[in-house]
Structure formats: C-alpha cells, structure tokens
Amino acid sequence: MSSPEICAGVLSIVATPIGNREDISARALGVLKAVSLIAAEDTRHSKKLLAHYGIGTPLLSVHEHNEREVAGRLVQRLLAGEDIALISDAGTPLISDPGFHLVRVARRAGIRVIPLPGPSALVAALSVSGLPTDRFAFEGFLPAKQAARRQRLQGLAATTATLVFYESSHRILDCLADMSACLGGAREASIARELTKTFETVLTGTLSGLHEQLRADSHQQKGEFVVMVQGAPPRDPAEVDAVSGQVLAILMSELPLKQAVSLAARITGASRNVLYQQGLKLKDKR
Ligand code: SAM
Fold first, then answer.
1. What class does CATH assign to 10-119?
2. pTM, to two decimals
3. Each residue of 97-116: pLDDT tens digit?
4. What is the position in ligand 1's atom list of the atom closest to the CA of 122?
5. How far is the CA of 225 from the centre of ligand 1 (A)?
6. Lower CB count within 10 Å: N or C terminus of the chain?
7. 3-class DSSP assignment, residue 57
8. Four-way CATH pick for 122-229: 3.30.950.10, 2.60.120.10, 3.30.559.10, 3.40.50.300
C-alpha cells in the first residue's frame, strides 16, 4: 500500500489578473485547466475569468468566513491524490486575501504547495512609483476606525523603508489625511489607482499635495488604490532617541553626569559616547 505522501496531490497557489485579463501566465491557465478543483474566493467573479479562457474546472468557494472549515476538507482531497488550485478575486492569493490557513494546514499535512507567480497590486504599484524599492514594508489595509488607524500610522512614523498600503475608494481621503497628520505632509508619496484598467493613474507628490489633489477631483477618488509613502530619514547615529534622552535626563537630575550616563547606557542600550555628548548638552542648558 502506498503512503498518503506518495500519492498526494499538489496545491497550486495561482495568481490571476488585477484588472487586465491578459495578465495571466500560460502556465497558470494550464494548471487551472488540469486540476480537479479550483478553490476561489468568489466563484461568481472567477467564473467570468475562467469562461473567458474556456476553463470549465469545478469551483469551490473559499472565503475568509469559511476558510478554516473548508481547509480540512480540501486537505483530505489533496491527501487522496487530487490536484487543487487556489485563486482569489484578483492578484496573488494570501496577499490581503484568503489562503493563509489553507496553505498552513496543507503544509502541516505534508502536501506539496507550489506558487504560480503573477500579478500583485503591491509589486506592480511599487515598480512604477519612483520611490525606493530596495526595502519596503507592506502594511496591507489600515484599520477602518480613525483612532486605530492613526495609532498604526504613528507606530510606522520612524520606519525607514518605503511604506505600502492597500486602500479602497470609501476611505482613500480619510486615509491620506491621517497619513499627512501622522507621517508628515511633506513626505514623498505615490498613489497607484486602477492599475492595468482603463482609468489607470499613478500620481506622485507630497502626502499633503496628493491629499489636496484627490480632494479637488472626485474622479481620482474612485477605484482601487495602492498608496506608497517614502520611509522616514534614517536617524543620525550621533542623535539620542527620545526614550534614551528622557532616561538620561531623569538620571541626571539625581546623579552626577558620568554615573547617569553609565546607568542610562545599561538601561537603554544606547551608546555611552552618544549619551555623554547629550549629557553635556543638557548640562549646558541647566
Ligand atoms: N491579492 C491582491 C494582490 O495581490 O494585489 C490584493 C487583494 S486586496 C483584497 C484588494 C486591494 O488590492 C484593493 O483594495 C487595492 O488596494 C489593491 N488593488 C487590487 N487591484 C488593484 C488595481 N488594479 N489597482 C490598484 N490597486 C489594486
């Protein structure tokens, strides 16, 4: 008798277009035709794409509300030897889309999971943004509520990598306003809208300038968006960060300079030398 690992099927994670239907690889079409089942986020939506390419493979709906329950059943079918593909409504599955749970349980069950790479709004947008792409932090969607959104943005204010966010038409203006407030209106940014579609637009400017530009033009508020913001300038290594500076100041109010510097360095991990220079400056001000 063969073991399940030997006869198990393959789970293919297949990227589909983010707008233009031609943006799908020949390999992806071949796999979607060949598998016994396609797990799709919204089967009605995916049927249109599959019909366009003459693919009649059966579909099963896997979305954020049923993924945990369906994943177990799909793994059973994979273990029994069926090949299955996962697609989402647009772009690469798992990138702000369902699939994480399925991939995790499939891997744990010893199933081979393979990627069929293709479009993702995040990479497409970055590639035309004109912002640094050597390091970027993908932040997905920001929280819907303003307080939580601002808190998240404040936590990102010192990140030096380019920041990448997904946003929808209902929140784009609020989101840009909060980004301006929390990251600084002068930061360079780029907004990629409706990529690969009829109204594709890529705008660049400062955060406050882009906010103003969208506010003044309701057409620019429609569609799907990727917002990219240049990272914070790297901190001068000769500068003490806010927390270390505060610790030093408190210790200096009770102790002689050398002792305060030595303790502050042990508490914060900041450089003794840099803290000493800061201590001298503080002493001069007193
Ligand atoms: N899995 C997709 C991917 O790989 O890009 C992302 C899915 S997420 C639910 C949808 C979001 O992606 C949209 O709200 C928008 O922020 C972004 N997006 C998708 N298609 C886009 C497009 N054609 N132009 C700009 N942004 C797009």
1. alpha beta
2. 0.86
3. 999 999 999 999 999 999 99
4. 5
5. 7
6. N
7. coil
8. 3.30.950.10
